[in-house]
Design brief:
The chain is α+β, with helices and mostly antiparallel strands and about 270 residues long. The chain has 2 domains: about 90 residues, Pseudouridine synthase I, catalytic domain, N-terminal subdomain (Alpha-Beta Plaits, 2-Layer Sandwich), CATH 3.30.70; about 160 residues, Alpha-Beta Plaits. Helices cover about 20% and strands about 25% of the residues. The protein has 6 helices and 10 strands; from the N terminus they run E-H-E-E-H-E-E-E-H-E-E-H-H-E-H-E. Strands 1, 2, 3, 4, 5, 6, 7, 8, 9 and 10 form a 10-stranded mixed sheet that branches. Strand 7 and strand 8 form a beta hairpin. Helix 3 runs antiparallel to helix 4. The protein is globular, with a radius of gyration of 19 Å. The termini are far apart.
């Protein structure tokens, strides 16, 4: 029987979701915990492959479990997992739906704070910046849904069959003081480090290091006009995953409220 698990995790202490030899991953921790509880080897398939130190306020994985699970598994699993991984729902599915390949939309949010704050260290990305051109940053963000090929915003584009992404939403928000930002984007798929590369370019625009025309040129020519590093992984959240047959609201409210802050669309 196939089950979907609805979870969230803080990724700062993990080298990403995907299991790899010799490193600590979210997938490995969950597989080991499930296998120990069920007394049988359990392999799981996640809805994506978040980078090292990236968070997920909504994430799904599926697992095939031979016997029907006990109703207490949710409680037992949460008790056994570390505090930075939470399981919200375990859903019995019909047939063989796939947590990764069946997803039709993924949403991400990237948080930036422009002043040093020890309480935001693991929740938001710190850039010591002043006088950002928020209007220009907003303008380039609004370009994203107008284009389909994001080859210029991918670290290794040649490993993909194509670099077409259907960006459905893109917006930039700021708090009332203007010292914290939230970049929001939704698409049917994302390329390697695509969001972090886009965010790095958006910050370059804000600092006056990249013009609106240069940013748009990268979307048109599919070549980076100026080289930039991906934005820091801390501050990036996979915040919602949608399926044709499953559309759950994220359980945690942190990603939207961020401790009561009101985000204003610029």
């Amino acid at each position: 029987m196939r089950y979907f698990f609805h979870i969230a995790y803080q990724g700062q202490h993990y080298n990403g979701w995907q299991k790899q030899p010799g490193i600590k991953s979210v997938q490995e921790v969950i597989e080991q915990t499930l296998s120990k509880i069920l007394k049988s080897p359990i392999a799981i398939n996640g809805c994506g492959r978040t980078d090292a130190h990236v968070h997920a306020s909504q994430f799904f994985f599926h697992a095939d479990i031979e016997n029907e699970i006990n109703s207490n598994l949710l409680y037992i699993l949460n008790k056994a997992l570390p505090a930075n991984i939470a399981v919200f729902d375990i859903i019995k599915m019909e047939g063989k739906p796939h947590a990764r390949f069946d997803a039709v939309q993924r949403k991400y949010d990237y948080f930036v704070h422009t002043y040093k704050d020890p309480f935001l260290t693991s929740q938001s990305s710190f850039y010591l910046l002043k006088d950002l051109d928020l209007d220009q940053m907003k303008a380039v963000v609004k370009l994203l849904p107008q284009y389909k090929d994001f080859r210029a915003f991918c670290t290794h584009p040649d490993k993909y069959e194509h670099t077409i992404c259907n960006v459905m939403e893109a917006d930039l928000f700021v708090n009332a003081k203007g010292d914290r930002l939230r970049f929001h984007i939704a698409s049917n798929r994302f390329l390697g480090k695509m969001i972090r590369l886009i965010m790095g370019k958006i910050l370059m625009v804000g600092k006056g290091q990249l013009s609106f025309d240069e940013f748009e040129s990268e979307l048109i020519t599919l070549q980076p006009s100026k080289i930039s590093l991906p934005a820091h992984p801390t501050g990036l959240y996979l915040s919602k995953v949608t399926y044709p047959y499953l559309n759950l609201e994220p359980r945690t409210e942190f990603i939207h409220s961020t401790q009561g802050i009101e985000w204003i669309s610029i």
